[in-house]
């Protein structure tokens, strides 16, 4: 990770900054210099840097204020801060660490010690990166349906109320399509569960391909039932989208592990939130309305869209 080869030096004395820069460059680091804490904060926003060595006493914003401000910011990653100062009593060290510094060094700096301290920084930052990545992965897994890669029911339940709230606030329409594969049980019964899974995956792919990026999103609601949420879309538009998807599904041949190709159909129920309607919309009401429409689509013979 080459961002661990970059160091920002925050130092008001140009001579000392140059001296430290030379040492760091001899250790293989790319160095940027900021003349005080305020300048350093601005630079971090523009060009993020994960290792910072800061002086204590500087005009405008000193090292302590800099550490405190830095820790209150929401930056793209953890910044490892070393204070490098002529102040060498124990109280100063404690104050520096309590302000949010990770390490404390006194001037004049010994290059070998600096190199070793920076190795510690690198180790901590690598650990932080891997934990961050793992967290992101877990967070993504928590909202993803494993079989299809679509959002799962949990995400649907968390997200839909927020989307409805936003639609009401911005007085925009919002539509929900609920869909259910027709006679899916017979796929499993005839061709086996693996074939059923392949059909679900292919169906999900067709749903995904029908979404408008950044506007619609789809979730696996459960079993062979899926939902598409269409923001800023009125009932008519959602009906058209559902009909297009219905045709795509009905005209597709789905390959299954046995080598056979299956034809499937699905039924669709569409419901909407309309701006200005007196009835306050909720997730429960919207889902119930789409479900009711889906039920009617099934009863009227399947392979159809009902709104
Ligand atoms: P309808 O047209 O009325 O919707 O009939 P259907 O057969 O599609 O509906 P039913 O609810 O009777 O059956 C749904 C089947 O979906 C039963 C269940 O075993 C199967 N199923 C649910 N989840 C999965 C899954 O993850 N993989 C597979 N292969 N099958 C699943
Ligand atoms: Mg100074
Ligand atoms: Mg079904
Ligand atoms: Mg059913
Ligand atoms: Mg079902």
UniProtKB/TrEMBL annotation:
InterPro entries named among the record's database cross-references: CheY-like_superfamily, Diguanylate_Cyclase, GGDEF_dom, Nucleotide_cyclase, Rev_trsase/Diguanyl_cyclase, Sig_transdc_resp-reg_receiver
Ranges of residues in domain Response regulatory: 6-122
Sites of 4-aspartylphosphate modification: 55
Its EC number(s): 2.7.7.65
SUPFAM superfamilies: CheY-like (SSF52172), Nucleotide cyclase (SSF55073)
Catalysed reaction, written as an equation: 2 GTP = 3',3'-c-di-GMP + 2 diphosphate
Gene3D superfamilies tied to this protein: 3.30.70.270, 3.40.50.2300
GO biological process: cell adhesion involved in single-species biofilm formation; negative regulation of bacterial-type flagellum-dependent cell motility; phosphorelay signal transduction system
GO molecular function annotations of the record: diguanylate cyclase activity
Taxonomic superkingdom: Bacteria
Residue ranges annotated for the GGDEF domain, each copy included: 172-307
Keywords in alphabetical order: Phosphoprotein
A cellular component term, taken from the record's GO annotations: plasma membrane
Transmembrane segments: none
Protein name, per record: diguanylate cyclase
Organism: Thermodesulforhabdus norvegica
């Amino acid at each position: 990770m080459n961002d661990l080869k970059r160091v920002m030096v925050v130092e008001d004395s140009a001579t000392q900054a140059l001296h430290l820069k030379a040492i760091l460059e001899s250790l293989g680091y790319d160095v940027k210099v900021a003349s005080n804490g305020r300048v350093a904060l601005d630079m971090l926003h523009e060009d993020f840097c994960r290792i910072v060595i800061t002086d204590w006493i500087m005009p405008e914003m000193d090292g302590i204020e800099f550490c405190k401000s830095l820790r209150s910011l929401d930056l793209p990653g953890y910044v490892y801060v070393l204070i490098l100062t002529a102040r060498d009593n124990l109280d100063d060290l404690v104050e520096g660490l309590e302000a949010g510094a990770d390490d404390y060094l006194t001037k004049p700096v010994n290059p070998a010690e600096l190199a070793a301290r920076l190795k510690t920084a690198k180790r901590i930052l690598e650990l932080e990166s891997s934990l961050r990545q793992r967290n992101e992965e877990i967070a993504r897994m928590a909202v993803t349906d494993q079989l299809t890669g679509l959002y799962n029911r949990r995400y649907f339940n968390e997200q839909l109320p927020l989307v409805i709230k936003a639609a009401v606030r911005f007085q925009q329409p919002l539509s929900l399509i609920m869909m259910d594969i027709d006679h899916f049980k017979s796929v499993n019964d005839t061709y086996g569960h693996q074939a059923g899974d392949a059909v679900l995956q292919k169906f999900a792919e067709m749903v995904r391909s029908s979404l408008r990026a950044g506007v619609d999103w789809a979730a696996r609601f459960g079993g062979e039932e899926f939902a598409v949420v269409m923001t800023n879309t009125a009932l008519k538009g959602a009906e058209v989208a559902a009909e297009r998807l219905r045709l795509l599904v009905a005209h597709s041949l789905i390959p299954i592990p046995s080598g056979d190709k299956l034809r499937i159909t699905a039924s669709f129920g569409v419901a909407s939130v309309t701006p200005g309607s007196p009835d306050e919309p909720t997730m429960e009401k919207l889902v119930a309305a789409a479900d009711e429409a889906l039920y009617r689509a099934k009863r009227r013979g399947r392979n159809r869209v009902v709104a």
